[in-house]
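Reading a protein record of the kind used here takes only a little practice. These numbers are not coordinates but entries in a learned vocabulary of local backbone shapes. Here is one such record, which you should read through line by line.
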Amino acid sequence: MPELAAVGELSRRLDGMVELLGELVSIESPSSSPEGVAACAGRVAAAGHDLLGTRPETVVTGDVTHLRWRFGASTRVVLLGHADTVWPIGTLARWPFESDAARATGPGCFDMKAGLVQLLFAAATLDDLDGVTILVTGDEEVGSRTSRELIVSTVAGAAACLVLEPSAAGALKTARKGVSMYDIDIEGRAAHAGLEPELGANATVELAELVLAVNRLGRPEAGTTVTPTTASAGTAINTVPAAARLHVDVRAFTEEEQHRVDKALHSLKPAVDGTSMRVDGGPNRPPFPTSASRALFERAAGLAADLGLPPLSSAEVGGGSDGNFTAGAGVPTLDGLGAVGDNAHAEGEYVDLASMPQRAALVAALVSDLLT
């Protein structure tokens, strides 16, 4: 289908896109619910069958459901998305899917169920899908623990991976920080807080020292953030705490910075006599550098102009995605090709409906161009 005709065709199918979006949002699929993820994946599979004429391969790893369509004998372009969300079961009871002429809202609509809809409708406009693989994973929001190997093996040898994660205020995502996650457990010694606190080793005091030490590892000038997040300590208000735990989130644009922080965290020593600590964790996602996306972004910008779409902009972001894995595997990757909207992971996330057919047309044009 000629590119300009695809824009018009997809605009005429906007009602169908919104209808499918509503169906997907209305299937709650938090990463913590394998049943919910499987149910949402089932509806994506059915929609793909209707739009593309074939059902996907269902890959269950552990208890997580993933989908993969492979067209042709080899993979040249991969379209990548995920069906899980951050919203717990029961969210729909207070915040159901709603849409009007301009926007749609509901848990997971922006991140990233609208992207799945756009992906399927974009692929459906292509006359020939030979060389295209579509992968929809089920655990992206919790670090892709069961899907990482599937992602890397799927993109192996591909010329490009297009990630249908939401945009950054309309901008495509051309770089992402690498992500590292840590759990630090502190062991102290309990004692009665009133009678003989001096016999204890206070894990809460050690936790306070640890939080400050961890916080000092960040390098804002390099874009490296080291953030103490959740913390817990103690068991009773009249007892010197014998245990504490701290979670740490690290984001960095380079592997060198990831490794620097990793070494520093694993080298931490207790400051409070009588306490000890154990550091678990490490890098989860490698950095996604601009070098992995530069040529694809330039290609997309030219195609957007050809389609008569608004000029494209780019953004480097701190959040990770499965695009980190594909870029880390050496595959040219362009991210943020999904929904235009805002408030990912926040109450009131929404999708700009007029942009859905436009972004779907851009993806279709980019795939077609990459296949020629």
Summary: The longest helix spans residues 34-52. DSSP finds eleven helices and 16 strands in the chain. The mean pLDDT is 97. The CA atoms of residues 193 and 237 lie 8 Å apart.
